[in-house]
């Protein structure tokens, strides 16, 4: 099927459309319903009646945006009317929810009169925390937004005007930086003089460009003062009329530094690009066909052409989704009365700064593993980059507070944690560990230090203040890779080939001489195997923790630290633990990587170690020893092992958290089963530490939960070692390395 057929099938699949309403509170019992509606609902109604601001406390108003349109100017479709525009408005709601966890009601108003439109929206002000105007034709859109901003007390934002302005403004900040040009000196030409073009030109002035350097062209040519005097242009275009000779777009582009296209496709040719100033900046944003094609613009010049379009199949897509969800997120969270110019500028500057940072692996993968590094082909972040939320929303919120638009103050540090929680429980849980790590950073050795991911992780670990990383490997290669990646940091490197590490070889020989390792072999391992080198470094106290395994099979990466560092004095067995996070639940799964067929003593020790790990994440453990049997319902050697392990733990005075078993998995995690059928259990709430009876079941279980249950997995976290060691999985992303480095630092803080 083609795109149209696929889209029709996508939209009509039951249930039709793309959005629905879901409840956020329990509705399972009669009491739940009496609280949700009559008679209990009267209480919050009375509170709001006494103080209207309490609507933000007791209703969804503070996270609800109205996407409002009359369908008079739908992108690429024109005036299709209110009803036909509904799929677009629903789509806008999807983007709000996906990128910023904002709920939306889409409202399609069958009204072309701007004054009646305004009155209709005004009447709905009590429902919403903000209004996003969408796909309303010019010049009516100017009147509607201006009046609503003046007459209602919640943020109003016409994305067609300001979205492109803000995102292309971020691109302009970086393009000018790369081209080494000052904003105030840029000669800028606009093709198009509609709502988006006028808003974009005004916004560029807010960023620092000079109004007198902006030349705007409509379908009749350059907008000049002479045309304005003749009444040839409307009042909105007149503000950009210049005292220059009349001419066409080609005349305007001659000698220009920047071309901004918000008009129609194919109206710019290579000769017009060649007439521009050196290292030109071209934003050809007409959709679906830009004013000039990407390849044609690039090939027209021998110097650097910095090119952006509105298309996703070329670099530097100017995509409004980089702006409106996060602008509203920041505005809603400080209960802003408006979205003002300072908030828009803050958004653009935050986006520009983010494009200069190292790009997460998940973002690179989403775009076909194409290189994404600050430069002419990467001047604005990608929409799927989760960091946009954490950079833009706080910047917008802070600008709202500083400019007087905010009705409530927020703590910037706490706010970032709240935003992370919106993206999932795993980010919320990792924030606990990250904060602990930053409170007392340690030194973390990174084996496989020449690996690009390890270098990027080291940069982030150091930049965030999590730890002092040491990259193990060839120093010249590491530094060259860091430079190629554009990472502005001076890494600490331990190069076994040039440093004096004779004592490391001696120590390895001393530890392993009765295990068949000769002195010569020990020297060779130190010089050529970063896992042994890093293990001895940590064992000797020259680093506090070790991360390895990125390019090795798990067993081969685990072997050196087990041989050199070993388990803790009071521990006989190490284990691999995954933290699995669901929307409203966290569970720790063990053992998933180390012990193939544990007996009851191993199971008991693994349970204790996993409980200790849970507490590092501020989770109070409740442990279940899993089986296919419930409390003796099946009696054989396999079911007796977890049963005996549970009994050993219950009798251990050092175990100060509830443990029970053997039990089936659903018994462990479903409260009704646990409290109903098995009310005698030591667990009075569902378990959050799940100990599997063997490695096979543990590995299968965590992967099924991750892939089919939609859990986010953090790990494997190695517990039970004498010094902190964590073995990565091959193919882990940079964020996984940073996360495990944080866990390793918190481990080291316990010593």
UniProtKB/TrEMBL annotation:
Residue span, Malic enzyme N-terminal domain: 16-149
PANTHER family: NADP-DEPENDENT MALIC ENZYME
Cofactor(s) the protein requires to work: Mn(2+); Mg(2+)
Protein family per UniProt: In the N-terminal section; belongs to the malic enzymes family.
Renumbered residue ranges of the record's region Disordered: 1-24
Ranges for domain Malic enzyme NAD-binding: 161-401
Any coiled-coil regions, as ranges: none
GO molecular function: acyltransferase activity; malic enzyme activity; metal ion binding; NAD binding; oxidoreductase activity, acting on the CH-OH group of donors, NAD or NADP as acceptor
Composition bias type Basic and acidic residues, residue spans: 8-17
SUPFAM superfamilies: Aminoacid dehydrogenase-like, N-terminal domain, Isocitrate/Isopropylmalate dehydrogenase-like, NAD(P)-binding Rossmann-fold domains
Protein name per the record: Allosteric NADP-dependent malic enzyme
InterPro entries: Aminoacid_DH-like_N_sf, Malate_Decarboxylase, Malic_N_dom, Malic_N_dom_sf, Malic_NAD-bd, Malic_NAD-bd_bact_type, ME_PTA, NAD(P)-bd_dom_sf
One Pfam match: malic
Keyword entries, A-Z: Metal-binding, Multifunctional enzyme, Oxidoreductase
One GO process term, biological-process aspect: malate metabolic process
